[in-house]
């Protein structure tokens, strides 16, 4: 009886480990680059060192002047084929990588959100389209920074 | 403390999802102005959206997304139904909200 119980417990344990594995992998898949403290390294981490081409097909809508760096609205429109992801970076932020949005097969190249800016800086949209990386940037003048608070 | 609102609207074959979350989004570097102590990091790290059994958006965030995050995105689908949005933060807190596509 107790042997059977042991065996059952072992089985249950193995089962739970097997279930836990894919979740562990999913967490490991977090975009690289959040640890980077400077823009160049953050960009390299996201692109995996691949070449990044400036693209007029990416439009960034941001205010020219942001009075409050804690809340800067940003809208990105990318007219590129097979968009896989859209990342937002702020060149001079202490953590330049803001977020990376990975789209499904039927995704549309559009993201609208609100970001923090420590001060006046370029905002960069890095788009992966059909396996290649494209980017666009736009400067936002920040009156009061929103990172140190 | 937290709470999420999700709206999904279909126009032709494009569905626009709008999400608003109540969350402090603390980077872990901000100092409390009264106590002068660093406020511990507490921010959403991932947000995903599912539709018709498929992931239509998965995203990784830093604390650089503003407090009480707003996000809007679009995807193409001929199906109606609903979308399911889930976020998870660096403390392991999570919330899921479903919205019927209008």
Please tally the helical runs of chain B, counting DSSP H or I stretches of 4 or more residues: 0
As residue ranges, the low-confidence spans of chain B are none
Radius of gyration of chain B: 16 Å
The largest sheet of chain A, given as strand count, sense and whether it forms a barrel, is:
6 strands, mixed
Write a structural description.
The complex is a heterodimer of chains A (149) and B (102). Chain A has helices spanning 2-28, 39-47; strands at 52-54, 58-61, 65-68, 72-78, 83-90, 97-103, 107-115, 121-129, 132-144. Chain A has 149 residues and is of the alpha+beta class. In chain A, the strands form two sheets. In chain A, strands 1, 3, 5, 6, 8 and 9 form a six-stranded mixed β-sheet that branches. A three-stranded antiparallel β-sheet of chain A has the order 2-4-7, with no helix packed on it. The longest helix of chain A is centred in the first third of the chain and has 27 residues, at 2-28. The N and C termini of chain A lie far apart (63 Å). Chain B has 102 residues and is mainly β. Helices cover 0% and strands 55% of the residues of chain B. Chain B has strands at 3-11, 14-22, 44-51, 54-61, 70-76, 82-89, 94-100. Chain B starts with a strand and ends with a strand. Classes of the chains: A alpha+beta (149), B mainly beta (102).
Which properties best describe this structure?
A: 149 residues; alpha+beta; 3-stranded antiparallel β-sheet; 43% strand; B: 102 residues; mainly beta; 4-stranded antiparallel β-sheet; 0% helix
Which helices and strands appear, and what pairs or packs with what?
The complex is a heterodimer of chains A (149) and B (102).
Chain A: H1 2-28, H2 39-47, E1 52-54, E2 58-61, E3 65-68, E4 72-78, E5 83-90, E6 97-103, E7 107-115, E8 121-129, E9 132-144
Chain B: E1 3-11, E2 14-22, E3 44-51, E4 54-61, E5 70-76, E6 82-89, E7 94-100
Antiparallel strand pairs in B: 1-2, 2-5, 3-4, 3-6, 6-7
Give a quick summary of the entry.
Chain A has 2 helices and 9 strands; from the N terminus they run ααβββββββββ. Chain A has 149 residues and is of the alpha+beta class. Mean pLDDT of chain A is 86; it is low at 15-28.
């Amino acid at each position: 009886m107790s042997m059977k119980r042991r065996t059952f417990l072992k089985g249950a344990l193995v089962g739970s480990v097997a279930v836990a594995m894919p979740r562990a992998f999913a967490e490991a898949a977090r975009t690289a680059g959040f640890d980077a403290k400077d823009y160049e390294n953050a960009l390299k981490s996201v692109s995996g060192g691949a070449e990044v081409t400036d693209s007029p097909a990416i439009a960034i809508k941001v205010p020219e002047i942001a009075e409050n760096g804690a809340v800067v609205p940003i809208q990105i429109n990318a007219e590129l084929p097979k968009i896989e992801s859209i990342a937002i970076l702020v060149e001079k932020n202490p953590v330049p990588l803001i977020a990376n949005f990975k789209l499904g097969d039927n995704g549309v190249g559009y993201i609208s959100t609100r970001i923090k800016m420590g001060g006046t800086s370029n905002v960069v949209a890095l788009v992966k389209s059909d396996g290649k990386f494209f980017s666009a940037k736009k400067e936002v003048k920040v009156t009061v920074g929103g990172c140190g608070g | 403390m937290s709470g999420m609102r999700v709206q999904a609207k279909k126009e032709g074959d494009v569905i626009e999802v709008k999400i608003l979350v109540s969350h402090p989004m603390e980077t872990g570097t901000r100092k409390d102005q009264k106590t002068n102590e660093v406020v511990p990091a507490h921010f959403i790290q991932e947000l995903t959206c599912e539709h018709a059994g498929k992931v239509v958006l998965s995203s990784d965030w830093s604390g650089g997304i503003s407090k009480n995050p707003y996000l809007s995105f679009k995807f193409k689908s001929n199906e109606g139904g609903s979308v399911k949005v889930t976020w998870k933060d660096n403390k392991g807190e999570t919330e899921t909200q479903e919205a019927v596509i209008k």
